[in-house]
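cache lookup: miss for this entity combination. No prior model stored, computing from scratch. Input as submitted by user K.M.:
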Amino acid sequence: MAKKSITININGTPRSGEVEDRLLLVHFIRDDCALTGTHIGCDSTHCGACTVLLDGTAVKSCTVLAVQADGREVSTIEGMEGAALHPLQEGFFEEHGLQCGFCTPGMIMSAKHLLDNNPKPNEEEIRCGISGNLCRCTGYQNIVKSVQYASNKIQESESVGGE
Amino acid sequence: MSKCKTSSEVGGMGHSVKRKEDARFIRGQGNYVDDVVRPGMVFMDIVRSPYAHAKIKSINTEKALAHPGVAAVITGETLKEYNLHMMPTLMSDTQMVLPIDKVCYQSQEVAAVIGTDRYAVADGIELVEVEYEPLPVVVDPFKATDPDAPIIRDDKEGQESNHIWHWEEGDKEATAEIFNNSDVVVKERIYIPRIHVASIETCGCVSEFDKATGQLTVWMTTQAPHAIRTVLALVAGHVGLQEDKIRVISPDIGGGFGGKVPVYPGYVIAIAASVVTGLPVKWIEDRRENLQADSFARDYHMDCEIAADKDGTLNGLRIKTLADNGYADAAANPSKYPAGMFSICTGSYDFKNAFVEVDGVYTNKPPGGVAYRCSFRVTEAVHAIERMVDMVADEIMMDAAELRMKNFIPKDAFPYHSPTGWEYDSGDYHAALQLAMDNIGYDKLLEEQKEKRERGEFMGIGICSFTEVVGAGPSKDFDILGIKMFDSSEIRIHPTGKAIARFGTKSQGQGHETTYAQIIAEELGIPYTDVSVEEGDTDTAPYGLGTYASRSTPTAGAAAAMACRKIKAKAKKIAAHLLETSEEDLEWEVGKFSVKGVPDKAVTIQDIAFAAYTNHPQGLEAGLEATHYYDPPNLTFPFGSYIAVVDIDSGTGEVKVRRFMAVDDCGNIINPMIVEGQIHGGLTQGLAPALFEEISYDEEGNMTGGSFMEYLVPTAVETPHWETDKTITPSPHHPIGAKGVGESPTVGAPPAIVNAVVDALSHLGVKHIDIPITPEKVWRAIHKKEVA
């Protein structure tokens, strides 16, 4: 099968490859780039374990072709931690927002998309914002609290920074 | 436990310390099976049957083998050369790994394609040509034993029908006598349907065989790595796999819930493929394969009867159950319990007598069933009794809470001997229900319901007061394939006072790395942050039966406490040596031994650990470590009372769980944060089958659905805000008084929700609705009655 040359900017690093048209973005991320934090739970866009940001928008990378991401920016869980943990990572830790950890990276990326667009969501908006991501362990309650924690933390640091 | 014995820095029992394992998970650095990559690794995909029952006339692999990237195709004939085409189930039945001449359920494994990458093998399975001749199917278990039903297991000698086993417990005659002499008899057929654990990670493995050394290493999604190693050695010993050269590694597991206990054919085929090819083979099932072919749970048809007096005294219970096991009895039960612990069905009530019988049958469906977040059929048992108690209340027009309070086993009756042979270790059922009622404002809810009913609105209140039976189990009764159900802990204290602890269990999200460290912190005073916990590698961890059925804390948690006590006994000798006194003159307080009456004269556990390697007394072995294999004297019996409040939209039939109060009693608590998290998750896995999830088949044996499009795992939107509280009744026989909690909410939530829905509709004459309570079922219940 003919291959195409692509370059995807993943977490700020250009990643190039020769790929088949049909290669899924999630397989490019996991297998070609060895970034295994992005998980696969269903391959039919239901579970959200493979959620990444594509040019800042949350997408399920099991239903995006790698060639569609050519020349674009992808953010995965591995890019979340800077000098410190991202407030969402900290929130999931502090509020016991995870158990087996399998849905967690996708959940955090969906929550990032939510907070980027709605920095102070109420509980209903959080539940709606993560409704494309299935978690079988937590019953979502502590995930909601984790996102609230991050929202508060981001607000606080912005108000401190603004003074 | 109101007060903690240790400081928050030590982090012993009762502290909500944050989880140690989370550091890797929040960074995406967990190591799940699909993250395992080996040099030269190839991939495997599986050809599956479109038919529920069919002869295989031919399998043509030519086109598949000609496809670029395909290296091999494995069929039943390939495996037959090694006598590996059949395998035993955990219940000592047999099951095909790959078929020779017929398939017995839809999505059954038919052949496997090995190739260079995921895409090549996915192409390859499309190119394997299989010619089938469809056979008549058995779908309805009630028709499975009809004289004209096709015999599914004609491969088994002497198997002349689809009946597998009959099992009964209790006194049949005495129970019949009670039924003859009671004022009120209430009957109902209750179906608890097939469901699936649907862990977000599916199943899979990477198998690597070194031809030169004969070493087999398998990374696999298993909740019971040690048992798997032994099973592999037993079934494949004849082809040269011996147990000392088999290493099973259970890496991070993305949810198990019982679904990762069985050995699925895919694992065996991948192992065989790695032995045959000499290459590491990765097999990861997709979601459809996971839902369509892996073991189901439940699927019990229960004919239930309760005999009672007019005043609400419960006298007798009788349940006759048909268990649909599918193509093979591949249930995950202890060997002597074909129906698991279903006989716990007298629940929290002091019945005079009871009789329970279960018959297992074969049908053309995937084999099973697993104990999905359930101690071996206790979910079915609790569903039956908690529904029936409500039906009695409805029949005699008594409040459902009052009826429960009247019939609870009183707290001074423990240890309580149930009519079906269980010895309940401890309980205080009245206190738990009272707390739930007080918390939710039960009386006010009844008033609200009355007002709403007058306005034509549908609101219901449902109670479930369950008793669990967990921690299998005492070796005199409990084994799996002959291996006794103890569990183990091996603890080594390093010279600098840090420790490593290894266990025979395997966390799948339960937080063992934290809770086990806290037990050790509690016992030895070593901060939990100084204790590394390892599980899941059979080369390093002590032998144990694994994690399922809420058994980790009751068994391995107890083993940790006992191993610590052995270490403490030796530490005391070293302390006496260091303090130049006798052992009798020493006393222990958290983390140190001191001379009685001279508190300043003390040595810490860290001092002692250092001395164990640098200055141990003559005549005493160096080092500070211990191993304990804990054989529990009894099971533990967690309990709780749940109250659900539902509102029903009469126009659409939609049920909304407005409030849900869960009072749990799991004995002494190790980490309250983790316990509460387990309860949230378990409640959500109880909500799911109550309202949404079911695996069903059409009359041809086709699974209707089989993806997340139809199998409705609840999202954050459908899941209510859970309210939780607790009572604490320690287990009298467990070393730290703990009981196990993971499955209580999954067991207790469904009947509370069903009871609430039926309560909302009871004035229309509705007595019972089988789960899942879909909007359609509710709408029909409302409108049929309204039309009539």
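stored under new cache key. Chain B has 18 helices and 32 strands.
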